[in-house]
Design goal:
By secondary structure, the protein is α/β, with parallel strands linked by helices. The protein is built from 14 helices and 24 strands. The chain has a 4-stranded mixed beta sheet with strand order 22-23-1-24. A 4-stranded mixed beta sheet has the order 2-15-17-16. Strands 4-5-3-14 form a 4-stranded mixed beta sheet. Helix 5 runs parallel beside helix 6 and helix 11 packs parallel to helix 12. It binds uridine-diphosphate-2(N-acetylglucosaminyl) butyric acid (EPU). The site of uridine-diphosphate-2(N-acetylglucosaminyl) butyric acid has 25 residues, from helix 1, helix 5, helix 6 and helix 12.
Length: 424
Amino acid sequence: MDRFIIQGGTPLEGSIAVSGSKNASLPALAACLLTSEQVSLDRVPAVRDIQTMLNLVKHIGAEICVEKAAGKKSRITIRAAEIREPEAPYDLVKTMRASSLVLGPLVARFGRARVSLPGGCAIGARPINLHTSGLEQLGARIRQQHGYIEAEAPEGLRGADIIFDRITVTGTEDIMMAAVLARGETVIRNAAREPEVVDVAGLLTSMGAQIEGAGTPVIHIQGVATLHGASHTVIADRIEAGTFLIGGALTRGDLAVTGCVPEHLRALIAKLRQAGAEVTEAADTLRVRTPNPLKSVDVTTEEHPGFATDLQAQFMALMTQAGGISFITETIFENRFMHALELARMGANIRLEGRQAIVAGPTPLSGAQVIASDLRASASLVLAGLAAKGEAVIDRVYHIDRGYEKIETKLAGAGARIRRVSAK
Ligand code: EPU
């Protein structure tokens, strides 16, 4: 297992370019299963979760071609002329919960799907009951046996009025992908408004789907008989961009994050400014500086456009260096504070009370050997390592490789002293 060795104390300076969004690419790859024609996707990041999804769509029957011209962004073309195996096996699903995104497309196109239940997860229970009940409302018969969800709709799906009990990002994407090939109109209420939902709706529309309202709480879909091929460029990864912005503020650097969409990062930008960082915007670039001492601010995670749960861990690292008490409340996942104890090992003063972390700062951070428990927790520990005195060792880097493209190369390009060491 690889680890990162970081010599902290160097500010991030210069610029870092953002990759395409992992969480927009995953549903986009699943959407390719909805047509027998070729779909080309640009700006799909080369991260492990994407490789897992590619393995899955290949297992299902798609032909995949990854073109990587030197110095250019990679393009992936997918053609699912036939569905050979409408199944997401446990071995693939257990490493990546987003595999459940193939459920909707498979039932819609093939009339049948068998998807392994994902099992436990480091950040919370993460059930998929809202995906399955949405599909049931679209007319699918759902059975659960031997650890698998089996869905069947031999006569095809029919439009329905679906209200999600709670907002779910991949649930919204999954049902939207199913509904585009259902007979008649589907309305999804209490839908997720994340930019990734809007992006996959854009791809589906260019494939011939009729969707209105993506990005609002109510999405209207008129089903069509078939979809055709398309080309699509995936949006910038707002979580990656946010991670680097927080890193720039935390190391008191002067960092430009390029190729991002500032509109997708409003809640973070507002919190960074409240904390005393200077954030300036120009088209697709955000620049962060921290000329003055940081002040503590409170953060509560919410669905978009609120403060993203995927930036909570990184923001907690920042608050360890802010003067005062910061209350960080996690409302999306029930167990997403694993990084707090590791940050404490580096010198942070954090008390956990249920869904709230109370961070008292500033406390000097010193490098230590820490273990990453999930993707965003790992990112938070890397940022803390950059700001710490001495050497930090971040173990189990495979978590970070799931969702950040060449993070150590990008950070090193901005002056960080970070290197990957492959364990024997
Ligand atoms: N939930 C249910 N039932 C369901 C689905 C969700 O109870 O059927 C609950 C979840 O347990 C959670 C809440 O609803 O408490 C919200 O979960 P959501 O379904 O929105 O999460 P997700 O779609 O599984 C996506 C991202 C996550 C991100 C969350 C929240 C992808 C592939 N994953 O997950 O990203 O944290 O939305 O914004 O889009 C990450 O990239 O590190 C990551 C975990």
